[in-house]
């Protein structure tokens, strides 16, 4: 059974007047953008199937035991002031400003 969650930029945030920014993925760009955006000006939502960012150039060092694996990954939930959904975006309707994704449990 496929359950869909619909994320829309209209209606919900009309009271606080913040612009909503939806970041797809928490790789290099997504993780950095989620950290540096001003949370007082923007309502930031991150959608990614993985809940962490991995610094891939250091992965070989973890395999040989030079550094610990926890030193090369950063959980997305450490970024304060964002909403996080663990899911993969399936469809984006730019005209209606809607993003559809299956719910990941």
Task: Give a verbal description of the structure.
This protein is mostly beta strands and 105 residues long. 13% of the residues lie in helices and 35% in strands. The chain is elongated.
Itemize the secondary structure elements and their pairings:
Layout: E1 4-8, E2 19-24, H1 28-36, E3 42-48, E4 52-54, H2 59-63, E5 73-75, E6 82-86, E7 91-93, E8 98-102
Parallel strand pairs: 2-3, 3-6
Antiparallel strand pairs: 1-8, 4-5, 7-8
Number of strands: 8
Sheet with the most strands: spatial strand order: 1-8-7
What's the order of the H and E elements?
A: EEHEEHEEEE
Subunit organisation of the chains: single chain
Question: Which structural class is indicated by helix and strand composition?
Answer: mainly beta
Give the helix tally: 2
* Rg estimate, integer Å: 16 Å
Average of pLDDT = 76
Instruction: Note the main sheet.
Output: 3 strands, antiparallel
Shape: elongated
Distance between the termini: 12 Å
Helical residues, percent: 10-25%
Q: Any descriptors?
A:
single chain; 105 residues; mainly beta; three-stranded antiparallel β-sheet; three-stranded parallel β-sheet; 2 helices; 13% helix
What's the short version?
With 105 residues, this protein is mainly beta. It is 13% helix and 35% strand.
């Amino acid at each position: 059974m496929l359950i869909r969650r619909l994320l829309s930029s209209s209606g919900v945030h009309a009271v606080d007047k913040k612009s909503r920014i939806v970041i797809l993925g928490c790789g290099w760009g997504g993780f950095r953008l989620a950290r540096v955006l001003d949370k007082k000006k923007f309502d930031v939502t991150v959608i990614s199937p993985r809940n962490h960012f991995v610094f891939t150039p250091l992965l070989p060092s973890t395999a040989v035991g030079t550094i610990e694996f926890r030193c090369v990954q950063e959980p997305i939930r450490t970024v304060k002031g964002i909403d996080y959904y663990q899911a993969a975006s399936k469809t984006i309707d730019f005209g209606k400003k809607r993003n559809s994704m299956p719910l990941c449990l």
